[in-house]
Amino acid sequence: xxxxxxxxxxxxxxxxxxxxxxxxxxxxxxxxxxxxxxxxxxxxxxxxxxxxxxxxxxxxxxxxxxxxxxxxxxxxxxxxxxxxxxxxxxxxxxxxxxxxxxxxxxxxxxxxxxxxxxxxxxxxxxxxxxxxxxxxxxxxxxxxxxxxxxxxxxxxxxxxxxxxxxxxxxxxxxxxxxxxxxxxxxxxxxxxxxxxxxxxxxxxxxxxxxx
Length: 211
What we know:
The protein has helices at about 10-20, 35-45, 65-80, 105-110, 125, 130-145, 165-175, 195-205, and strands at about 45-50, 55-60, 85-90, 95-100, 145-150, 155-160, 185, 190-195. α2 (about 35-45) packs across α3 (about 65-80) and α2 runs parallel beside α6. About 40% of the residues lie in helices and about 20% in strands. The strands form 2 sheets. A 4-stranded antiparallel beta sheet has the order 1-2-4-3. Strands 5-6-8-7 form a 4-stranded antiparallel beta sheet. It contains 8 helices and 8 strands. By secondary structure, the protein is α+β, with helices and mostly antiparallel strands. It is elongated, with a radius of gyration of 20 Å. It has one domain: Homing endonucleases (Endonuclease I-creI, Roll). The longest helix has 15 residues, at about 65-80.
């Protein structure tokens, strides 16, 4: 049928597009806090893959973190208008939030995976707005961040870890822009905040792990 250029589903497909059951247009997303946070979490712990007729967006989560899973599956649904599927990833303790749709990479302006050695830039509309910066950072920290406290020594830490050098530089730059005093560690590929008051303030501003 393909060689003869016969499409038995053309009439049905056109009817579905007319009724809105099949999406026929993919406009750019509204630039807002939700989009900034989704971009952050995708850059931190997600990937975009291209197929001949569609694209795949995946965000990975520890299955013991139901708050993360709900927040970002809901955020994907809110932005894309389509409910993602949740599946266990292999034999590991990992849940994949996955969605297929066209032009995902173009609309998010996030490079296809793998991104390990790419130079990732902060999108200008995010960098110019403090609220968008906070939501962007929240997505990044929810994906690749950690918070630890050692009461006996009074040690407080908020980490962001990623092996992409440009991502570390971006987080460092944004935290400085927000008034923090981070330091970078090349040994463990991280940006850290170590002052107790700043750690507490950052957690509150980013709403880190608050679902």
